[in-house]
Amino acid sequence: MALTRQCELAGVARSTVYAPRPVTKPDEQELTLLELIDAEYTRHPFYGSRKMTVYLRGMGHRINRKRAQRLMGILGLAGMAPGPNTSSPHPEHKVYPYLLRGLAVTQLQDLKPRLNFQAFFPLGSLISYALPRFNIMVGAARFCAFRQR
Fold first, then answer.
1. Looking at residue 23, what is its pLDDT?
2. Residue 21: what pLDDT?
């Protein structure tokens, strides 16, 4: 079978078949870095290339993030990060309606007919508790500002 057809079937570009890959032996410094990365990853498996770079620089090694990524790739290591779709709600999570849509709230009396205080007791009690105190604070601030003039 022709080499072109074999590459098509395997889904590989022909240039990768023709180009010889040089096998490089890691030097002692790379072996040391690989050992340090492996040991630190065992202690902290959530470290990614950025944190690993900070760790290795703290130990006195000259290393950049790209090199840390390459060395972690050689070892088959990757930092643990949240996967996709982390913002989707759980199917059993209850969705509460927004009761104040289209309502310009200027006073507590605007809220009372709209909210069922039995169903939304924490919100109702917070509004009932905070609004008078807020009005007192605003009034006191206005009084103090008036007095200073």
1. 81
2. 77
